[in-house]
Design goal:
The protein is mostly helical. It is built from 24 helices and two strands. Helix 9 runs antiparallel to helix 12.
Amino acid sequence: MKTPTPNPNPTPPNRSRRTFLQSASAVGLGAGLGPWATLGSITPARAAEMVLEPDAVRFRPEIEPVVRWIEDTPRDQVIDVAVEQLDAGLSYRDLFAGLFLAGIRNIKPRPVGFKFHAVMVMNSAHLLGQTAPVEDRLLPMFWALDNFKSSQAQDVQEGDWILAKVDEAHLPTPSRAVAELQSAFDAWDADAADTATAAVARYAGTAEAMEPFWHCAVRDWRNIGHKPIFAMQCWRTLQAIGWEHAEPVLRSLSYGILDTQGGSASAEGPYEPNLELARSIRSDWALGRRDPGATETLLDAIRSSAPEEASAEAARLLNDGIAPESLWDAVILAGSELLVREPGIIPLHAVTAANALHYISGAAADPTTRVLALLQGAGWVPLFRRRMNLDASPVLTTMEAIAPEGSGDEAIAQIFEAISDDHRRAAALILGYFDQGGSSDALFAATRHSIFRKGRDSHDYKYGAAAWEEHHLASDPRWQPAIAAALVGKIPGSATRDSPLMRRAQEAVARIS
């Protein structure tokens, strides 16, 4: 990045900046929230038992009643009912689990995306909430409740899909479960995969159970990378709510990642050549040296090459002794750059899909799957670039930074003003903010505030969580400002009106006795 230059058109803080600073101090974010603080000491409780259709899968008895009131409460009442349940003692964990499982049972995971974001966004919402001040931690769950009700209504209009019971007569034996799941995934056989998944969830250990899912999810770019996102979200959510809920969750995942959207039963993207490359990588690939020059080399290849060529360059660098962390930096930077060049849903998924592949590369046990995830990341970003019809012009590494007026909260407020008016200028201000020693924690705290109060879309949460995570995972601090600068492509600016949903939620909480 270039040295920051002074802002050529300094202007005094306007009303929106003053309002931002007053209501969302980048280090406090809790001022004036009042009744939210009363939700800090919630203890477990249960809703009343409800009737369930006989053909639907039934969840564990301790969580089924929570799922049922979430399913059956009308959208315009669900936040009020949730507040009543919380006030009566419902735990955050049970609310989180019940809401996630309500989506698993009621929302068809085909295609993996669109209305199914009600499920795929849950861990992102949870992650942002858990990194926020305590008084803000329930805000994402109230948003997610409303989002689920919207998706549930859409699913009803599209046929009212529901996750059915397992075909118990065709379950493989415990000793054959994992092998049969792998065979079903290889054959793209959803029916065989469903029964094998149930057996794997019941009989295999957690890590062993996930291995076939990791490999299956990373092989297919179809649905612009949503399959590894779905797999990652399922695993991470189960870590929070408990593996005892794994069977229905993994069955939904199995059904979703085998979706071909009416096309051929084969992976979309450079899977086959990358699988061969992955098997050819040196055995000590994880012990390579970190090298920012190699990051730039791969970044240039991803910008200008075909998918297979970019993946081959990543494989060459691994075999030359470069650490995978330096190559992941290039993948994340390349996706972030697309989002700065042309904000929208397609480039946003270049970042969120890369984040999922990055996570899977660290979570999987099989070395081939771990390397494959990296090679796919290098090869998938050119697919996004091709979909956007963009050339290879660099942006983030050549952008001239602009020094914000002032520092701290004042600088952050200026950045969020600019996001609403000129996203490229806002990105340059973020670079200048970091060049002046600005705090990443303060910037991302303000980002969370903006998402919680102004966000209206699942992608606000998905991208916000991915960007926060990848910023901190960058192997070289020099890349962190560029990753953060891509926030301007999605995060709501200060001129965006607050979400009416959040106002409703605040009113509901204010009624807590």
